[in-house]
Amino acid sequence: MGEGADVIEATVSRSEVAPENACPIAPVVDIVFSRWTTPILWALHEYGTQRFVELERRISTITPKVLTQRLRQLERDGLVVRTYYPEVPPRVEYEISDLGRSLAPLFAALSEWSVNLPRVEQARIAYDAQDGKQRR
């Protein structure tokens, strides 16, 4: 077999990859940057172990239902540890896991990049002004 077989093999390999799997960081983005994940992980990293009500107060715009859902998903993903204390009344605490802490360099890099946000806003303003003129 010659060059033709290599081309066919490469074409088949590319077509077998689902579009959502074409980017190797897409699954990471889905886990880490789904709605409310970063504020929850940040609060647990910054303030340490917390009870549900403490997290709810720190992230005041999240509903209790959504906070419960996100905490369960983060626990399932191994990013948060939930500890239940069978006392009266029962107590539950949440803390960031070692796996969750391993995201710190990623968040630090994103924090450093945030100095570019004014440039993003300027680009949006320029685009919106230009887009309005071009669409007439």
Short description:
The protein has helices spanning 3-16, 26-32, 37-47, 52-58, 64-76, 98-101, 104-113, 117-134, and strands at 50-51, 80-85, 91-96. By secondary structure, it is mainly alpha-helical. Strand 2 and strand 3 (91-96) form a beta hairpin.
Helix-strand blueprint:
Elements: H1 3-16, H2 26-32, H3 37-47, E1 50-51, H4 52-58, H5 64-76, E2 80-85, E3 91-96, H6 98-101, H7 104-113, H8 117-134
Antiparallel strand pairs: 1-3, 2-3
Helix-strand makeup class: mainly alpha
The amount of beta strand, in percent, is 5-15%
State Rg.
Answer: 22 Å
Main beta-sheet annotation: 3 strands, antiparallel
Protein architecture, described:
This protein is mainly alpha-helical. It contains eight helices and three strands. Strands 1-3-2 form a three-stranded antiparallel β-sheet. A hairpin with a 5-residue loop joins strand 2 and strand 3. The longest helix has 18 residues, at 117-134. The N and C termini lie far apart (56 Å). The mean pLDDT is 86.
List key phrases describing it.
136 residues; 10% strand; mainly alpha; three-stranded antiparallel beta sheet; single chain; extended
